[in-house]
Specification:
Chitinase A, domain 3, alpha+beta, Alpha-Beta Plaits, 19% strand, 47% helix, single chain, 4-stranded antiparallel β-sheet, 6-stranded antiparallel β-sheet
């Protein structure tokens, strides 16, 4: 057997495989002998007909079976000898096949990327010296107070901290804003819309112009669209709003007392504060752990430079786009807005997919080197946890995952989590002073995206 490999791209290869005529003829004879055992030919007992007669009667079927086994065996051998790991089924083009001739075919395939594995034991990471303090507890209690907030209608002019309920219509150059941006219905017209200077300003400057207004007042307010506004097309333009004040509302928060605590299932305010403190400590430890795990994966991603199989990236991108669209639907985002932002959604999905695919290959290689495997018990436990979340029976979910071919993704998630456990355990941790709040970001969590173990 001769194999010639052509690199079409770093992860896409074409194998030209040729099997000599002698091997082809031997395979034809072996298959024909198998057929003879069961062949019913006139004048001959089963298994006794001459091979030539069997070949004449079953030639096409014998040829197909010979081709199938020759191709299967030679392709597997070519992969093994050249240490190739395909990620999809190959595209096969037959060049020549027949009794007495060499068998020649092309197999085009995408393969797992080859890369040098960086050192993954003792990755240097940072952990902030943070602990839960009184200010954190007070902030958390304020969040609980916000859940019990009330709003009172006021028969007085609006002050800066009030919510101002309005009806409005907005124009730019005397045209509805939707003429400029179709999806900007919320900027163009609203009924009973709650404005607030910081929490819901609509456009900066709008609420300031309404301070001192009372219920029933009507005002024309002109504001300039700021540079950092969500719709770039109208930045710098003047928007004119015809506004009717429907109601002025004063926000009121409950007192932190035992009555308040009982509303959250605690015996007293002291017990509620104690429970909040414990929750914050658990969240902080989880956050520190997650940060270390993400840093480990980020360091490996930064240390590996490799091309990725296009097919796998495309599949992951499609899945990511589907997830983004589903999440937007659940949040109530309309189809028009999703369609308007489809290019941005695709770009974000592809970037996310590339990071995840690359991380998968790195973590998979570490698992192989370290002999890390997923046990049946671990898989069953994960499926049971997923089933409990979805409120269906584990057996039913397991069957669904097998039927739609996604059970391997669950295995992959468990495997990746176990590898990241190792990275975290062996990481070299340096404690640092807390960073300013603005530097904490939550957008770069691809490493932990593979970890569902917590």
């Amino acid at each position: 057997m001769e194999v010639t490999i052509t690199d079409l791209s770093p992860c896409r290869k074409q194998l030209r495989i040729e099997i000599d005529a002698e091997t082809v003829n031997a395979k034809f004879d072996a298959v024909a002998k198998d057929f003879r055992r069961h062949a019913h030919l006139p004048g001959f007992r089963p298994g006794k007909a001459p091979l030539a007669n069997v070949m004449r009667s079953y030639g096409d079927k014998i040829g197909e079976e010979a081709k199938r086994t020759l191709m299967s065996d030679s392709y597997a051998k070519a992969l093994k000898e050249n240490e190739l790991r395909p990620v999809i089924m190959p595209e096969v083009e037959e060049l020549q096949f027949g009794h007495g001739k060499p068998f020649q075919y092309l197999a085009t395939l995408e393969v797992t990327p080859a890369f040098e594995m960086p050192e993954y034991i003792g990755i240097e990471v940072e952990k902030e010296r943070r602990s839960v303090n009184d200010a954190d507890i007070a902030k958390a209690l304020d969040t609980l107070r916000e859940q019990r907030v009330s709003y009172a209608d006021m028969d007085r002019p609006a002050v800066e901290e009030d919510f101002i309920v309005v009806n409005f219509t907005g124009t730019i150059d005397d045209k509805p804003i939707t003429d400029l941006i179709k999806v900007a219905r919320g900027l163009t017209e609203q009924k009973n819309f709650w404005l607030h200077k910081t929490q819901n300003p609509l456009i900066p400057g709008t609420v300031e112009a309404l301070i001192g207004s009372s219920k029933g007042d009507k005002k024309t307010v002109t504001v300039t669209i700021p540079d950092d506004f969500v719709y770039e097309e109208i930045v710098g333009k003047e928007a004119k709003y015809e506004i009717e004040v429907v109601q002025v509302k004063e926000k009121s928060l409950p007192e932190l007392d035992d009555k308040f605590a009982k509303g959250f299932g605690a015996e007293s305010m002291d017990k509620l504060r104690e429970g909040v403190e414990n929750d914050l400590k658990n969240e902080l430890e989880y956050s520190k752990k997650k940060s270390i795990r993400n840093q480990c994966v980020d360091k490996l991603l930064g240390a590996v430079n490799c091309d990725l199989p296009e097919t796998i990236v495309n599949e992951a991108t499609r899945a990511a786009v589907h997830n983004i669209v589903q999440q937007n639907h659940q949040r109530g985002v309309g189809k028009e807005i999703i369609e308007e932002n489809k290019d941005k959604i695709y770009a974000n999905a592809k970037t996310d997919a590339e990071v995840r695919v690359k991380a998968n290959y790195i973590l998979s290689k570490i698992a192989e080197k370290e002999g890390i495997k997923v046990t049946d018990q671990e898989l069953s436990r994960q499926v049971a946890a997923m089933a409990a979340q979805q409120k269906i029976k584990p057996q039913k979910l397991a069957q669904q995952l097998k039927d739609n071919g996604t059970i391997y993704q669950v295995q992959e998630e468990i495997m990746n989590a176990k590898v990241i456990d190792l990275l975290e355990e062996k990481a070299k941790v340096t404690e640092i002073d807390p960073k300013p709040e603005a530097e904490h970001t939550h957008s770069h969590e691809h490493g932990e995206g593979h970890d569902h173990s917590h």
